[in-house]
Amino acid sequence: MIAQFFQIVDLGIKSLLVQKMRAGLAALGIFIGTSTVIWLVAMGEGVSYRAQQQILELGARNVIVRTKEPNAGSDEEANSRVKAYGLLRADFRRIVENIPNISRAIPMRELKFELRLDDRTADTKLVGCTEDYLELNRLEIARGRWLSTRDRGEKVIVLANDTAKRLFPYENPIGRTIWVGSEFYTVIGQTKDRTASAAIGGSLDSRDYNLDAYIPIKTLRQRVGDLVMKRVGGGQGWNFVGEDVELSQITVEVEDIEDVDETAQIIETLLKKYHEKEDYAVVVPRELLRQAERTRTMFNVLLVVIAGISLLVGGIGIMNIMLATVTERTREIGVRRALGATRSDIIGQFLIETVVLTASGGLAGVLFGLSVGPIFRFAKKMVTTFSPDSLPPIVHELEPRIALWSVLLSLGISLGVGVLFGVYPARKAAYLDPIEALRHE
Amino acid sequence: MIRAQQSDQPKAEQFAFRVQDLRRTYFMKGETVHALRGVTFDVLVGEYIAIMGPSGSGKSTLLNVLGCLDRPTSGSYLLAGDDVAKINDYQLSRIRGRRIGFVFQSYNLLQQLNVLENIKVPLQYQGLIGKDANAKCRELAELVGLGSRIYHRPTELSGGQQQRVAIARSLVNDPYFILADEATGNLDSKTTDEVLELFESLNASGKTIVMITHEDEVAARAKRVIRLRDGVIESDERNEK
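YS: structure for the whole thing
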């Protein structure tokens, strides 16, 4: 039985090899279909895996409340020189005092700031934070130390990796002093390189930690203040616009992961009472995760549909070829029938031939699909070598992840296509009249 | 039962096949064509018989019926006790494979297979591929004088050689009889002679051969000649040698 099966497979291969070019072109459709599924799914999985990792870094138990610039309400407001908006220190107190099931709440204020040392400058994000900030964002100290409770109100600063490199390309920054605005601060520590996390709070960019500088939030409030003047370009020279923001972000860690959604609701209700404008956003990483999951599922469904269509087209190509083959080999079919082949023998022969054709296209497609990683990396490298800035960062960070289900599915579909589109030509062959078939030239 | 009464007749197992009052009628474009109009004859095991007749005599129709490629409209065709007139396509296929060895005018070897594989084809359809299958096919290749070319493709062989492969293929299932359809029609006189000698030696070793031909020289080599005309047997004679 098995020996007979292999004999039919062997015969199928031999018959296909008679017309190598034709068989190859017919299998190409299936090859493209299969490898496309694996490639696209691997890309999609890569993107969503990254997104998930970034969201997870925000913390599944956290509720993040962020300041966001409100939409300009009235003309008067739009024209005013100083805009005051965002989370207040009072909001922070209210959250801590009114919500019982939180393990901690961490306030943070960040602003763009230029640090200087002699003739070297660094455009950084100056972050005023508390001692918890390090652990909350999974930052690690490369040298020196992190902010402590005793530093509150002191002029000390911790530099992120890239910030430190810009200001101190060759020296150890620990213990040195740098200019922050018009004051000297002592560098007490430097953090390790840290990959970016997910975008939150309306900003589309992901949060990059490597150009940060951290000082105690109390110091920031006392020495820098809430009001920041920004230069904006205009027709008649420079113009200044002020922003008065107390806190950029409050990160609330909930004791029980089950209470996260509810707590987010409560915080939202609480804040709404004191804010006229929509100048804050409540972000729940867990919800983001669920959204990402939904997006991923939809994306995958879409991919499978596209792949299905391309394999269908490939299958029609295969059927076309097999019909031509049956016509061409009418004489052979007649001879085989005369030599004792039953109708099911003929069906088996042509069906297996079709399946061999699609399966070889499918297998080649799978092999090509599995090599998505190296090929993609190589292509990325080539593009960056010739034009370094042409790729958006998302592409740089993308690592395709091959999904097992996509491999099995595409292989299964290609086999299925072989059977589905092989049946009609095979039946046509089997139901030829042997006498007519033998007479066929 | 009938055979028991006729005690002077040959016994059942001595018949290769028996044809009784065979009729075959076609309906084509509203016209009725009576291709066979009552043909009756018996062939014994070990006979070498030529069936002759001009075109339109019903020769091809008879060939198709004898080859189990077609069923008669009426009458019976007894092949080892089975009445072929009354069985379905599946059973017909099995009988073709087991009991009949076809030799065609245009050899009809499968181009994608070599000599050995071509000889083996009928065995595959009987599910008879055992350890000895290759040995048997090789033996048959040697019998027809192609033992040194078993791995050649049909395109690498001459017409006479191809026909000898086809004869070896017709023998592989130990059929009840060999049915040769104008087997020398495509060959020159020298190779015709060789092939006919092969048939004669096979017949001498006990094989039953039924040969359809329109050439008198070919028919003259057979032991018995049946002539058809207008769908009936015109003559049934033994060649005296």
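YS: worth flagging: Chain B has one domain: 12-238.
IM: good catch. Also Strands of chain B lie at 15-28, 31-44, 48-52, 74-79, 82-83, 100-103, 177-181, 209-212, 224-229, 232-238.
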